Model the fold of this input.
Amino acid sequence: MVTKQKYQSWEKPRCEVFKAMQKMYPRNKELCLICKGGRLLCGLPTCPLLQKISIQKPVKKKLSNEIFGPSPSIFVGWHNYPNVFVGPMTSLDGDEKKAEILDNPGKWYGMDFSEIIKMRSLLVRSKRKQFVKIKNKFIQDTQDLALSIKPTDIEAKFKKKPTYKISFSAISQPMGPSGEIEKFSIVENPKIPRKVDSLVNDELKAKDVVFELYKEKFDIYYIQTIFSSGSLGFEENKRLVPTRWSITAIDDLIAKELMKKIRSYPEINTFQVYSNEYLHNHFEILLLPGKWEFEQFEAWAPKTLWTQKLSKPVIVEEYEPFKGRWDYAIKEGGGYYAGRFGVVEALEKMKRQARVIVFREISEGYIMPVGVWEVRENVRRAFKNKPMNFFTLKEALRYINSKLTIPIHEYIKRSEILKQKRLEEWI
Done:
């Protein structure tokens, strides 16, 4: 059972020294000046400033106006749409096997924040402003890189040496050094699977190609890149799609196709709970007997990057009924679609349908956003773990209550699914 003391723990300062130092030196820069990385007054396990320096110096030495290396993917920006920055991502590490990992979050599970930053710092984003519907050799070469299943060696020449700067997004993964590209050339043949080449050149709707690629077991992160490159759809409709939009679009497109099948499957007959925790994100996923419904909670601790000025946890909720939803889940954004994707993917493998509630608690240890891949992979991993099975909803909720930081009644009073009281569930 969750105690009141556990519930209030999020409201307490990390230590009395930290509390006192904050009063004396309220500005972060002043606190860092007093600490100098040796006393960890910010409460973090390591000094982020010293860590940045240790990563930044060796990376800066590798940056120059001309870079040769394997390109594992591309990136399309969203600012000033429809005139956006687009270009290849190039690894500063010549090892092709390492380059395969740099832009594939599916292979990052288990890495901590520092490992992710170190890895992403080795990937240079080259960019050139292009209209999303333009067709030229630069775009064609960029699309070939996106379609390649393996990193492709390129030579890139920049207008000036790329600058080292780590940037973050709530949707896409952290970005490392970047620079405006003058030109680039592909110096080896891209490895484009025959099936991909065939589908891309067929006159098919983009969403149909996306689901066909998924059915053919192509990696979802690879599909996201292809979709972003503007390679799919009827010729007159092809256009670049900003990477951050592509991520959520693919989660949504594939999930909707899977839900069409799930709605016809038999219902589960027990209450199941799946759990997982990674990068200070804790997930409890409750499957209830019944027709397909989906609900996801995000509970943010105070003092995270997004809740610096708050003293109490904040809970947001999104819901969709059996027939689905057509409006955007604005309160949770891409995290909602990434979580839902992981759930429907698991139900499709089970050949079952259920009412589903995802409880996600984000603790203050989540010091920086790494992208919604973290939600997707947390949920995927939860379904790889052995579930807890219960005969009644009351038992399932009691178990979940013992695992969460916020008492379960705080969720129940906000829940659309749990408001639907069925007598047999509460007995």
Q: What stands out?
A: The chain is about 35% helix and 20% strand. The chain has four domains: 1-43, 59-186, 194-262, 271-426. Residues 164 and 380 are 33 Å apart (CA to CA). The radius of gyration is 23 Å.
